[in-house]
Amino acid sequence: MNVNNFAAVPLLGTLLLSLVPPVTQAQEVRVYSGRHYSSDNAIYERFTKATGIKVRLLESNDSAIVERLRNEGRNSSADVLILVDAAKLAHATELGLFQPIGNAELMRDVPLSLRDPKGRWFGLTRRVRAFVVNPKLVNPGSLRTYADLANPALKGKLCLRNRNSVYNQSLVADQLILRGQPATRSWIRGMIANLADPVYTSDTVLARDVARGKCGVGVVNSYYVARMLSGQNGAADKALAARVRIVYPNPAHVNVSGAGVTRHATNRTQAIQLIEYLTSPTAAEGFAQGSFEYPLKGFGNNPILKRFGPFTPDGLSAAQLGAKAKAASQLMADNGWQ
Amino acid sequence: MSAAGSSRRSLLWGVLLVSLLTLAPLVALAWDALFGGALQGVSLGSEGRLQVGNTLALVAGEGLLGGVVGTAIGWLTALCSFPGRRLLRIAQLLPMAFPAYLQAASLIDWGSRAGWRIHGLGWAIALLALANYTYVFYLSHETFASSGRRLLEASRCLGVGPWRSFGRVALPLALPAIGAGVALSAMEVVNELGAVRLLGVPSLSAGILDRWQAEGDAPGAALLALVALAIVALLVSGERLLRRRSRRWNLSVGSPQGPLWHLQGWRAALAMVITALPPLLAVLIPCLWVSSGWESLRQQDGTELAALTLRSLGLALAATGVTLAAALLLAVVRRWTPRPLVQQLSVIAGLGYAVPGSVLALGLLILGGPIGLGPLLLLLWGYGDRFMAVAKQGLDAAFERMPPSIDEAAISLGCNWRGVLRRVHLPLQRGPLLVGGLLVFVDVVKELPLTLSLRPFDFDTLAVRVFQYASDERVGAAMTPALLIMVLGLLASAALIPSLDRR
Description:
Chain A has helices at residues 3-19, 38-51, 62-72, 86-94, 104-109, 166-179, 181-194, 203-211, 222-230, 235-241, 268-279, 281-291, 303-308, 318-323, 325-334; strands at residues 28-33, 54-59, 80-83, 122-133, 158-159, 217-221, 245-247, 254-261. Chain A has 15 helices and 8 strands. Chain B contains 21 helices and 2 strands. By secondary structure, chain B is mostly helical.
């Protein structure tokens, strides 16, 4: 290889790069999304077909996306921000990343507990923090509320996801609001004393271990088990999932994924159009259906979700959960939740 | 000579610019940490101490395991002869093609399907050693092969057995190279994020990110980052010290020719097992995963996969070009200007390697966001910053081996510095440049946190797609892009074979 070949390397690279970025269209909306479900793309495509507005997407994890938008400020080209946890949505609102939209249609379609009261973001789907139970080890009837997980009778039978999971942080925030700090602290200590195995880093791996009897009960988002039951993860996972039961505590902690128009959006009209479309009863159901989440209202038409039965939300708002997020994470750390 | 001197001064400015560019994101971070939040009540806390302890345990455990495995394989393939030696030596490049986070994700998922829980510090050490022992192997093999044979021959003539000659002659000779390899791999361990997080080991790199992003505690994150940087600074200075010593050794020992130690019977079998095991494991883990999850492998959109691959390839090529050019500039100026300032700047320019990618991404966002710098430029800046040390490593060593009399001869024959560079250095440094370039290429293809945080719209790469599917616990869907990363990594590693074979 001679010198000219070396000069060709960056040249070729730039050439390739210049080929790849897509051409700009007249009508488009640019989305930063913390959701990453391949089924979402089908909904975006339907939106483009219906409106002629192209959706340009950047999917990443919630924290990275919020940090990016915050630093880009005025220069950001994002029009819509989608996040997957109530506390994260509240945090982004606090940072001033959204702008309020007083849109009657949105206010009507999205229940008050699932959106920002000032219209800065709107819920898209609901997910429930549920018990996954192995009926051979633990009687599903004995589990009625999250508090039951600290019952000493479950010693050596409980499995939990790690503290890093935002879903667990929001669950603890939820309990902090409903039951106060002393009760929540002893609840966490009780659960940690009941652990069968060190905390998990994945809901699916946890659900498999419940099915195999390594744990009697675990706490997961129900859609992970629904996905296993659907056969999307293969026949082995489907058979394992058939051995477990999903139990919804009463009342249940319901988390949301939601979207808002960014403060410095250049395509504001198109952004509102997209959010209207995503929250409209038909599309919201489609959004939820592909990922086995629940739509904003009702329990959807999915046969697997129907088998799980209905649940009663505890009705806490994302703003309430967000306000307690930091305290929740600290309480978990202080009481041995790794 | 004075004309040459003044035109070289412009090169000095170039070095200053490169060092500034690499240092800027770190300074921005420190600034943000110090003045962005109230600096009060900052402490490690019990959690911080746990994270520091875990990182130290990872560094020590991985260093020991990777050091022993890498040295053993380096010695066996350099100085012993047994069936399949050449092939097995080349096979040591295989583990490089597999990113540690991918190995961890596939092992955990496969284990969970089979009913085993893969979790905790022990597994993290084993997987990180598997992913990083190549550094020790590569450097120790070089030393054993180039300087060991004659001395070993002499020691054996004097009646010293193979084990004692290894312990008393070969090992002390290679110790600096082994130490340098261990230091390099330890830096990888300090900023490893995906694998340790998946295995449930709370480490410094994860702690920095969590404090910063999840808890909004910038000063606390900066404190952890300082601890990480201190560990890395120790490693860097250790590596430099050892390299200086190894250079002296290389000068004192002559020709690389000499007989190999012929292994027979069970000894040969054992040597084969030891050298074959790590590459075999590296390939086996993803294969097991593919076989257990085969049915969940979806029919995937071919054009989309092609686009993902093309973007990964394009980004890696562009980043390689940028990084190599900057590394070459640093190495050349270092050679021509032996001022302490230049030497120090050159060290500083390599610091980005020590910073976790996710932290570097934050620094770049703080810098580039407000002025609206294009995401692709920012991304290339990040890659260059992160992987400068990788490109510099081989180049610096190669320039050190080249006698300065060559430059003097060229200049006395009327060449200016551009001529020396074009007609003398580049042809002579073709090998190290190629090796450095390929290492950067493989690293960029595997890189995740920078790409994830900085890329433009509609610009997913293979690594990004793997992460998205895996973090959504859709391991089956992650399989095809993961396999494509490995193919790119393998192709690039294959190009390294000649450099290994030459020795």
